[in-house]
Amino acid sequence: MKKNLKTTVLNILSIALLSVFMSCETNNLDVLEQENTPTEILNDNYFVEQAYPGISGDIVDFTLGSDIIKAEDIEGKYIVEGDMVFSKDQVSSEGLTQSTARTKNRWPNNIVYYRVDPALPNKARVYNAINHWEANTNVAFVVRTNQSAYVNFVKGSGCSSFVGRTGRQQNITLADGCSTGSTIHEIGHAVGLWHEQSRKDRNNYVTILFNNIKDGKDHNFRTYVERGRDGNEFSNGLDFNSIMMYSSRAFSKNGQPTITKKDGSTYSTQRNGLSAADKSGLNKIYRQNRKIISIKGNNNRYISSENGKKSITINRTSVGSWERFKLVDLGNGKVAFKGNNNKYLSSENGTKPMNCNRSRIGSLEQFTLERSGNKYKIKGNNNRYVSSNNGDSRGVTCDRINVFAWELFEISGL
Fold first, then answer.
1. Which element (helix H / strand E) includes 260?
2. Other C-beta atoms within 10 Å of 397: how many?
3. How many domains does the chain have?
4. Nearest-CA neighbor of 195 among 17, 13, 18, 12?
5. Distance between CA 409 and CA 209 in Å, rounded?
6. How far apart are CA 225 and CA 349, in angstroms?
7. How far, in Å, CA of 275 to CA of 268, rounded?
8. pLDDT in tens, the chain (414 residues)
9. Domain boundaries, position 151
């Protein structure tokens, strides 16, 4: 049976990622591509991301590990906290227990594979959101090729996401009104995060006004401790500025606040970007695991990113920040090189000198390292090798079929 949807507040898998968020800093999102949806500051309103705005399903109980969870059954899916989705197959599958959630629902090696549906309008919001995550966390996003587990950005009736890695295709749905900020929020769920107000110590910071909550929705305002689940916080207090925080009047039935600060005042929430505490907490969950390397050519000079301002060079006699790269292990023998400017090296498909100016990892940003004695050959996606060109005016290119001295490199830090 379907009625008006409100929203739901929950924590499930006990990933302890629930409360990663807590600061008071507003982080402006650098718009890297043209988009049509506005940046959102949510002032004491009713806004909250929802999978099916205006639709409500039957309230059902399902078992997740040892917990009984309440959700709305809409179109064959369990909807939790309004925008978090659990498929019935996912809930009934083996291994969805508290003891396995922490490992099974994080993305291995900090790599999230993704696909953007060609029919999705305003793709820039997805790319801008990915760029924001890449620039502020240790998570990397790689365009999916044949991976079975990946995030699929598709058009939907609202904003929604599965929580954590499901091990298969998992949709992030985006209606036309879902902005870059809402996309950042939904990616947060996809990497395993819950809403900020669900943390176990939230009652030290906020008051839940149950009399103002829509009928049948009060169960969504419980903490994970109240639901009998274990968990940990990754910061010292509730973050009103977290991008995962609900607005002060979320699910209100009468226009009055449903959540206030302890002094009775309301607060504003934002969808500009990850807050300082969001970033800090996320980087405790997805820790830095990249090797920091430098690459020296046959001419005894180091490759420099040139900070992405021009094509990379191989003319440095010493290693500074521009000559250091994070080596991102993509699996299956593939790697990517991330410069100090948070951009990736691109082979440019061998058609021009290489650059370090890519915000995302596509096929041109993937390489293979082949050992040759104490040196390495670097092969691009075009099946050609990177050449130093002895540091001459041609720059560093990825266009060699055969390997000689100019195509061999010393890589420090491996």
1. strand 259-261
2. 23
3. 2
4. 18
5. 64
6. 52
7. 14
8. 444 433 333 333 333 333 333 222 233 333 334 443 333 444 434 567 776 777 777 777 766 655 566 677 777 777 766 666 766 665 555 333 332 223 358 899 999 999 999 999 999 999 999 999 999 999 999 999 999 999 999 999 999 998 889 999 999 999 999 999 999 999 999 998 888 888 888 999 999 999 999 887 787 787 766 655 445 566 678 999 999 998 999 989 999 999 999 999 999 999 999 999 999 989 888 998 899 999 999 999 999 999 999 999 999 999 999 999 999 999 889 999 999 999 999 999 999 999 999 999 999 999 999 999 999 999 999 999 999 999 999 999 999 999 999 999 999 998
9. 40-285
Q: Is residue 302 part of a domain?
A: yes
Amino acid letter for position 48: V
Burial class (CB in 10 A: 0-12, 13-18, 19+), 209: middle
Give CA–CA dist 379/1, Å, rounded.
57
Q: Is the C-alpha dihedral spanning 400, 403, 404, 408 positive or negative? A: positive
Instruction: Select which of 35, 134, 186, 306 is catalytic.
Output: 186
CA distance 35 to 125: 6
Backbone angles phi, psi at 176, to 5 degrees: -60, -30
The residue behind tokens 């959700």 is: 71
For the record, the structure tokens of 331 come out as 């699996």
Q: How distant, in Å, are the alpha carbons of 87, 153, 165, 190 from that of 169? A: 11, 10, 9, 11
The answer to whether residues 239 and 296 belong to one domain is no
| Closest to 274 measured CA to CA, from 178, 141, 137, 160 | 137
Identity of the residue numbered 228: G
Whether residue 186 lies in the annotated active site: yes
Say yes or no: 271 and 306 in one domain: no
* SS3 sequence of 7-58: CCCCCCCCCCCCECCCCCCCCCCCCCCCCCCCCEEEECCCCCCCCCCCCECE
Q: Are residues 208 and 298 in the same domain?
A: no
- Given a contact cutoff of 8 angstroms between Cβ atoms, the answer to whether 167 and 103 are in contact is no
Residue 389 has what DSSP assignment? Answer: G
Nearest alpha-carbon partner for 82 in 209, 212, 191, 173 = 173
Hey, what amino acid is at 183?
A: T
Q: Tell me, yes or no, whether 57 and 164 share the same domain.
A: yes
